[in-house]
Amino acid sequence: MAKTNFQYEKRQKELEKKKKAEEKARRKLEAKNNPKPADGVEGDEPEADDADVDADAAADGDAPAQPQ
After folding, report:
1. How far is the C-alpha of 28 from the C-alpha of 22, rounded, in Å?
2. Among residues 19, 38, 48, 56, which one has the fewest Cβ atoms lying within 10 Å of its Cβ?
3. Which whole-number Å values give the CA distances from 51 to 13, 46, 48, in the listed order?
4. Under 8 Å CB-to-CB from 63, ≥6 apart: which residues?
């Protein structure tokens, strides 16, 4: 019967552990360099506010003009 190669298995576990540690360090560094907004909303684009929507609708001519 063949012997199990424990050294190979151990080395594979070590490589996987090292890979996970490097990935964690990379994510930690990214988080440090690019902090999230304080309100907890993720994303690079700001949300459109009502003024932008009204201006777009008025420019299209589909919406009635609003008095100012």
Report:
1. 10
2. 38
3. 56, 14, 8
4. 54, 57
Give tens-digit pLDDT for 9-57: 999 999 999 999 999 999 999 999 988 766 655 555 555 555 555 555 5
Of 48, 44, 32, the closest CA to residue 57 belongs to: 48
Which residues are CB-contacts of 54 (< 8 A; sequence separation ≥ 6)? 63, 66
Q: H helices of 1-68, where?
A: 6-33, 50-60
The CB density around residue 23, as the number of other CB atoms within 10 Å, is: 10
At 54, list the tokens.
């009204």
User: In terms of C-beta density within 10 A (0-12 exposed, 13-18 middle, 19 or more buried), how is residue 53 classed?
Assistant: exposed
Q: How far apart are CA 3 and CA 42, in angstroms?
A: 52
